[in-house]
Amino acid sequence: MQNINNSDYSPAPGIFDATFVPDQLIAGVQTRVTDSITLKAGQGILHRGAVLGVPTAGGGAVLCTQSATDGSQTPIYVLASTYDTTQGDVINAGIYATGEFNFRALSYGEGWTFDTLKRAFRPVNIHIKDSVSAADPS
After folding, report:
1. Which CATH number characterizes residue 81's domain?
2. Which comes out higher in pLDDT, residue 19 or 132?
3. Which label site among 19, 33, 39, 58 has the fewest CB atoms less than 10 Å from its CB?
């Protein structure tokens, strides 16, 4: 058995505290396929879970808005990390090309609902799920 020593943590139990706070973006066990793309400049900060479309004229992916008419109204990717586009295009931004994602953890442009986004993502093998409340249904 290999002895793992991480200098950030004491080997004695109870001496350190670490907190992991999941963002709940991933909503299932379907294999996620990742890739990288260019994000178009001038969109501000795009957070992990942003729904992206790509204009047919090119120039990089943008936040998907249902009313767009430049091709970016078709959702294609989910952003895998948070990126700042204020200083220019972001090259090699990580995206999910397939997977199962929690609708409530996604960010998207105006016009989308759970049902419309779920249908729009189906052709690219991205599945959107709605979270279920733990509240008593009675």
Report:
1. 2.40.300.10
2. 19
3. 19
Assigned domain for 48 exists: yes
Give me the DSSP letters along 60-121: -BEE--TT--SSTTS--EEESS-EE-TTS-EEEEEEEEEEEEEGGG-B--TT--HHHHHHHH
Three-state secondary structure call for residue 43: coil
What is the per-residue pLDDT for 13? 56
Residue 22 in any domain: the answer is no
3-state secondary structure of 45: strand
* 3-class DSSP assignment, residue 126: strand
Q: Is the pLDDT of residue 81 over 60?
A: yes
Band (17; pLDDT cuts 50, 70, 90) = low
